[in-house]
């Protein structure tokens, strides 16, 4: 434990300061793991190609990112950064940047074809905080939030705006799977896919975030080993220049449940395709066929979702299996675009919002 000497009222005080272990190379990580230092400082690392910056076995420690973190180029399907553990504190320090230099992988087709592309950051955390990270140009997906519980992600800046002109695709901001009690707030995403995609999870809050340039905010359930999304709150967010505003989509012929999704005070600005989408016939290649009811959408609350869609777009699209949804509450004001006369499956307690 290091110490600092400070003065207070002319009296010298000896103050204990937590010692830190500096990492300048991935070769330092094993020694950092064995050290008694509570703070691990990552400084200006270039991670070798095909290697993860791997923080497993750092329970109870703080990981600070300083300077610029970069990665060698290789076509592979691993993760550039792995963070697993309990009671961890992940912090981005002033002036730092995690730079994926994604243009080296971008080929306009993301994970669907072309080059093999790594995930940017894989997190599997418990009782932890991730705060202040600044991330630029991810090869494809940014955050995998997988099997996490009681974790806060805050003040995160994911900047993939270069991908709009250089071939970025599937550059999701936050992908959530099998996680519980997750809060993502005060963050920004500029990308070419979902800002947030919840595939499964319980008690998730996405609040005070700005999503720009991508495919909107999605609860997308089906096709995984767990197909439940319950008690989801998306609140006080802005979706700017995305093709979709907000959506709930369930897999065609899938099994599971969506229960208790709320979109509250969400502002849509300059949406190009559809403002609000609720569908039960989703496939990765796009909606297809008649919706199936194996993943019913219950207790959906659309409250004060407002904004504008461009003239060739559609305000609201609903296509769910009749009789499968229940308990919907709807209050939206999406202007511009076109009304969709073919909305299907709205529960009986609600007048069809497509006709408002």
Automatic annotation (TrEMBL):
It comes from Apolygus lucorum. It comes from the Eukaryota. GO terms for biological process: cell wall organization; pectin catabolic process. The gene is PG1. Belongs to the glycosyl hydrolase 28 family. InterPro entries: Glyco_hydro_28 (IPR000743), Glycosyl_hydrlase_28 (IPR050434), PbH1 (IPR006626), Pectin_lyas_fold (IPR012334), Pectin_lyase_fold/virulence (IPR011050). The keyword Repeat applies. Keywords: Cell wall biogenesis/degradation, Disulfide bond, Glycosidase, Hydrolase, Repeat, Signal. GO terms for cellular component: extracellular region. Residues 334-356 are annotated as: Disordered. Its EC number is 3.2.1.15. This is endo-polygalacturonase. It catalyses: (1,4-alpha-D-galacturonosyl)n+m + H2O = (1,4-alpha-D-galacturonosyl)n + (1,4-alpha-D-galacturonosyl)m. The lineage of its organism: Eukaryota, Metazoa, Ecdysozoa, Arthropoda, Hexapoda. GO terms for molecular function: polygalacturonase activity. Residues 1-20 form the signal peptide. Gene3D superfamilies: Single-stranded right-handed beta-helix, Pectin lyase-like.
